[in-house]
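Following up on my earlier thread - several people asked me to post the actual chain instead of describing it. Fair enough. Here it is, all 660 residues.
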Amino acid sequence: MGLELTMPDLGTSSGLGQPQVCQVLIVGNEHALLGQWADALNAVASQHENPYGLTFSTATASALEKILDEEDQLQALIVDAGTGCQGLAAAEALAEQVRHQRAGLNLFLVAQHSSSEASNLAAFSSQCQHYDELFDRREGNFNHMFRLVQASIARRAATPFADTLKDYVFSARDAWHTPGHSGGDSLRNSPWVGDFYRFIGEHVFNTDLSVSVQILDSLLEPHSVIQEAQDLAAQTFGAKHSFFLTNGTSTANKVVIQQILGGGGKIIVDQACHKSVHHAVIMNRCEPIYLKSTLHPQYGIYGPVCRQDIEQALEVHSDARLLVITSCTYDGLRYDLKPIIDYAHQRNVKVLIDEAWYAHGYFHSELRPTALECGADYVTQSTHKTLSAFSQASMIHVQDPDFDEFRFRENLNMHASTSPQYAMIASLDVARKQVAMEGFGRLKHCLRMVETLRNEVNNTGVFSALTREDLIPKALVDDNIRLDPTKVTIDISASGYSGNEIQLKLFDQYGIQVEKTTHNTISILVTLGSTESKLMRLIHALKQLALNPRQRSHTGLVRQLPEFTQLKCLPADAYFAETEEVSLVDTDGQLQLVGRICADEIVPYPPGIPVLVPGQEISLQIVQFLQQLLQGQYTTEIHGLIFRADEPMLRVAKAAVCPK
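Reply from S.P.:
Thanks for posting it. Predicted structure:
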């Protein structure tokens, strides 16, 4: 049962810039018969229109695992189940293997069913549920087989909205509707702003259209091409329903929380979650139960919440209705989600996973399982962060068994713009197509680049690429936390420079912008758009910087967030209460603040975790911590502070507000 292939050597290249080739593999044990099928299908392909470049080859089942790992251009499998029940069972097991290694490939089953009795047909169908199409082994209609395989691949490769938008633009209709630039005509010949038109480009303007163009469907009430694109997204990402958003994942989180907790209720939430979740808590009058993030003291990186703390919160707050956690984090740490989600579901708590930084996870076996695969009810993803969509282009994926689609659309419409950016919607359509057709190959290419980057960084002798073990705080060692390898955190301590200083040197001297920094790390994000040339320049820059380390070691201090005090009222009550502004820096202000109720969310960046949320009691420790952040040469950006004549002020509730 060795490797038996009749396919050409496709090598290990990522296929970048290559013409479309769709490899279709015929898998089975009757080698002569499979060879005849491949010859017949290749003959049909040569005689018909073949825009996707379908080519047919054969392999044994024992060789399949290696082929799935190596052949980037593989798009479909035709599995011969033979003539008996045993063959059907083996074919079903093979389908499971393929789904695990290469989610999204089209699967076709060739079998010989021996009876037409309804009971036998039902049993036969239940064994074939993972296959797109079924063929009877005795028919030998290769024209029909070729057309069905091509049609299935064509559907996965379709971009219904993007194609309709392109067709409309090229139809060159006169615009007597919004937007006011009218396809760019208001700018094109202007002596004052024509340069902007030429810089941005013609198609940015003529794809910026209006809801008046009915052929392009409605994002708020889709029935045609946008709905088709969303259905394809659900199929591609493994959801029951998927929804496009042009307001980013910030809006996605607000929509889901409103769906579950509109009007109030308890929500269990990671204190380090995105600020949009905290905003949703205020907007929906929720009662938050905050979970404390773990700190890695050496690097100043905040990680996931301990599983034990999540389970304890679920036990204590049996009336909670929603659990919200972020996986993976900004730094690439992701939970072992299935036991957490199962624990929540056993207590009738819905689960929202913010996967803003993990939209790519489903498309390579090394990055799975994703939140949807682990049973999350709702998943929000920033398609633009790691895939090929425009900024603000995001998706919500749903598999809640109690999903009320009508109510969800109403909640979505409350937050979404009635004038969406059509190019943004098209970019979601195209980004979905890309990962469906070449996501595995592209991500394999990314992972090879990550390996090269890590090795070269470590070879500098000054910089160090941190591993999963390096990044996980002690409190999480037993939680099976995993690392998204496409997020590379580099320890720069031995260089003698701070993270901010290295970031500036890379930018000013080498034209390189990194993702983020801490006092002694920089973070690199490897995406589908990363290239060998960019990698070469980054490695060169780091090697050059390593040649001249500063003798004086940078001794930046990790400022651990002060302890969360307690909520004295609902965040909404404090936020909308009658308030006053109190100085953060003068002595009298410090005394006035201690014990008062904060009315705003106060968030230092980095790390982007609230020090105060509305309704929280202010402690002396918190006041002193904020004062320290504003002192020194490199002050920290703090969201939520009010500055009056350059004096930082905190907005606090004037009088006692209603208890929780």
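The two ends are 68 Å apart (CA to CA). That should answer part of your original question.
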